[in-house]
Amino acid sequence: MKRAALHNLGCKVNAYETEAMQQLLEEAGYEIVDFHEKADVYVINTCSVTNIADRKSRQMLHRARRQNPGALLVAAGCYVQAKGPEISKEGIADIILGNNKKQHLISMIEQFQRQKNSPKVLTDWEDINDGVAEYEPLTVTRQAGHTRAFLKIQDGCNQFCSYCIIPYARGRVRSRNADEIITEAGRLADSGCREIVLTGIHISSYGTDAAKPSGQGLLELLQAVSRIEGIARIRLGSLEPGIVTEEFAAALAGMEKICPHFHLSLQSGCDSVLKRMNRRYTSAEYAARCDILRRHFSNPAITTDVITGFPGETEEEFRQTMQFLDNIQLYGMHVFPYSKRAGTKAADMDGQVPEAVKAARGAQLRKLGEQMSERYRETFAGQVKSVLLEEPFLYEGIQYFTGYTKEYVKIAVKSEKDRTNSFATGKITGQLTRDVYLMVEF
Predict the structure, then answer these.
(1) Rounded Cα–Cα distance for residues 146 and 319 (Å)
(2) DSSP code of 8?
(3) Interatomic CA distance for residues 292 and 288, integer angstroms
(4) H helical segments located in 75-152
(5) Which of 244, 305, 386, 420 pairs with 98 at a CA distance of 20 to 30 A?
(6) What does the alpha-carbon distance between residue 254 and residue 363 come to, in Å, rounded to a whole number?
(7) For 107-130, how does the pLDDT look when each residue is reduced to its tens digit (9 = 90+)?
């Protein structure tokens, strides 16, 4: 049997698309093996959100080539979309699949194999911003982890933040047909999945493109997914703050399956930096959206992203971001040093911040994030919660199963039995480890 190995870099959307490509290979008769094993075909789904992501993408392509020089090497994804013609000329992969072209994986492999006596790089790539691209019909019938599954609902972004390459690598907003989403969610439920995470490049824009899918927006889609039997929880991917209105939050709070875990992108707590970033809100408006969520949900988990060292960021602007975050007290944050991306407006801005300064500021932000996270998790001590258990955890000779509350707080329950993909309800008694809290089951 032919053997194929896949490696994913980047976001949850990439992870979903990698899973879809794996299922295409399985349907074509391939045995899927670990990426570190010898395979006949290697597929690397690349990322280009930062320079580090670019470098890692290239490293994985070279690693696959070293593992089996005679294997067929496929490069797909955002790094390929951003640098496709260059990668093709370099010849570091045999097949180049741009974004919106992953559906052609099997036909491109077959085409390459037919020309094996005179091999040349095959490219399925086009300017995704030239004209109107359709939503790519990739689908997943099951996912490796049966507890939680990602479900892609849209692609592309229209925001054009001054630092971001993704609108150029992913194209404009394209919403997936609502009926297809519901069908896939039903299949995942039938396969035993209890929790769905709706993901996309900019899910707040779902249904806002010209050809609205069944006339639905994100809220209507959530209401439809919540009616699917077998799905116990619905978790949302990253949201733009502007989507959080009183009406939106009230509607979410009225759906029992919605997890009170919201990732609202911030990027900076300083208004002058936000303006240079072309973010479409002020720090006060962001804080107001958090207040709305806290009015409609009891102690919701709110997380965010922050960029440090954006061009022109002064010590005073950074101090304002630190103070804003300390005041607002979120569950946690991902901290990224600004990465200069050719083709974006920020790349040509004056006042590029030295890497050492970015690193120092990032360290301060991460320390603050750890403190906020610990404070938030401490509020759950003594509370009664339901936990969806996922995997075994052996600690100091005692067998536990760990899982997450709806707020995504990690909890351990003593159990000698396999509790994978089952719910446990009990009282949270305190910390077991730094990141895991202990629950005594009822």
Answers:
(1) 43
(2) E
(3) 6
(4) 78-90, 105-114
(5) 305
(6) 39
(7) 999 999 888 666 778 888 888 877
